[in-house]
């Protein structure tokens, strides 16, 4: 993997700036969630300290998920960045400043969330969360540094679309609203979202990788022999 050819003047500014933006985003949304919840939700004051921490943590988790899913959907589905057109070059080599920025913001998010998990360990998550965040940052970082396989990493980031439903389920549970209709509707939405984004999407992803195996194998060969 030759990082030098992918680390131009734009990347020297964009990469660190986007990572810092991701960290700043998490801090800002954490504080916003805390202030809005304390003023607008009566039950917030009755939560324990750790419940408040997790409540606020899930606030920036939800925000990142919405941003990541929206940008991933735009780049993969709406834009022509990854359309099957030989004039655009091979799929695995295609990228844009927006995909670079999204990867940087996501790394900033995972770093912030990982720091909180370690600080409050294991209250916000056990070893499986450490493994998940570590592998996520490795995969995103590899795509960012190499400039390769952005489409596939964006597809994986789109699976974050289910996170707001998971977090809303937790919010309603902690608030004692498991019997309300919103809890039921959210459960249905979570099931449908999981089916589409976590199962059907991965079937498509692996099918796409299979039909572009020649591009992937060449990239992996170059990466292993440099």
TrEMBL record:
Q: Which UniProt keywords apply?
A: Membrane, Transmembrane, Transmembrane helix
Top-level taxon? Eukaryota
Q: What protein name applies here? A: TLC domain-containing protein
What SMART domains is this protein classified in? TLC (SM00724)
Q: Cross-referenced PANTHER family, in alphabetical order?
A: CT120 PROTEIN (PTHR13439), TOPOISOMERASE I DAMAGE AFFECTED PROTEIN 4 (PTHR13439:SF0)
Tell me which residues make up the TLC domain: 50-226
What does the UniProt entry say about where the protein is found?
Answer: Membrane
Which residues are listed as membrane-spanning?
A: 13-32, 60-82, 102-122, 129-146, 152-172, 184-206
One cellular component GO annotation, for this chain's record? membrane
Give membrane topology per the record: Multi-pass membrane protein
Q: Provide the species name.
A: Urochloa decumbens
């Amino acid at each position: 993997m030759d990082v030098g050819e992918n680390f131009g003047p734009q990347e020297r500014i964009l990469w660190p700036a986007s990572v810092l933006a991701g960290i700043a985003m998490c801090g800002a949304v954490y504080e916003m969630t805390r202030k809005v919840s304390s003023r607008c939700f009566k039950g917030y004051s009755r939560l324990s300290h750790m419940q408040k921490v997790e409540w606020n943590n899930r606030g920036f988790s939800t925000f990142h998920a919405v941003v990541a899913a929206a940008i991933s959907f735009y780049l993969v589905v709406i834009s022509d960045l990854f359309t099957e057109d030989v004039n655009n070059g091979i799929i695995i080599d295609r990228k844009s400043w927006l995909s670079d920025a999204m990867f940087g913001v996501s790394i900033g998010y995972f770093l912030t969330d990982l720091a909180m998990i370690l600080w409050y360990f294991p209250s916000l998550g056990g070893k499986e969360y450490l493994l998940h965040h570590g592998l996520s940052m490795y995969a995103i970082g590899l795509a960012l540094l190499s400039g390769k396989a952005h489409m596939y990493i964006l597809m994986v980031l789109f699976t974050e679309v289910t996170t707001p439903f998971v977090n809303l389920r937790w919010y309603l549970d902690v608030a004692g609203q498991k019997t309300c209709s919103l809890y039921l509707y959210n459960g249905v939405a979570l099931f449908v979202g999981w089916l589409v984004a976590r199962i059907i999407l991965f079937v498509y992803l692996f099918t796409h990788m299979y039909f572009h195996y020649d591009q992937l194998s060449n990239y992996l060969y170059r990466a292993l022999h440099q």
